[in-house]
Amino acid sequence: MLALKLLLRLILFPVWLILTFLTVFTSLISKVGNLVMGLFYLYILIVACIIIAEHAWLQLAIVMGISFAVFLVHFGALAAFELFASAKDKLLDVIV
How many Cβ atoms sit within 10 Å of the Cβ of residue 13? Predict the structure, then answer.
């Protein structure tokens, strides 16, 4: 039984290292992404104000659609980070 647990730990340790790398990588990307998203939404706000002043409603709908699509991509990246972090924590509980 002890040999089986040791074998399981040896197999799961590289998986844990990969999940740790993915967690750190997605955390870094999300932090940088938050800065970029803030600047992007500031730009979108300025563009939307200009479009509203010109009464160009179709262009406003297109800009809002692009903005929503970028938000969904960012939300998906944050969801992936949380998924990797929870999987890493559960795997660490199994290893230790």
Answer: 12
pLDDT tens digits, 23-54: 898 888 888 888 889 999 999 999 999 999 99
Of residues 46, 34, 95, the one with CA closest to residue 70: 34
Q: Which residues contact 91 (CB under 8 A, 6 or more apart)?
A: 12, 15, 16, 19
* CB atoms inside a 10 Å sphere around CB 3: 7
d(CA 21, CA 63): 35
Residue 81: CB atoms within 10 A of its CB come to 20
Residue 25 CA to residue 35 CA, distance in Å, equals 16
Residue position matching structure tokens 């990969």:
18
Task: Classify the C-alpha dihedral 16-22-27-30 as positive or negative.
Answer: negative
Give me the residue label for tokens 């340790």: 13
Kindly list the domain boundaries of the chain, sorted by start residue: 38-91
Full-model pTM: 0.72
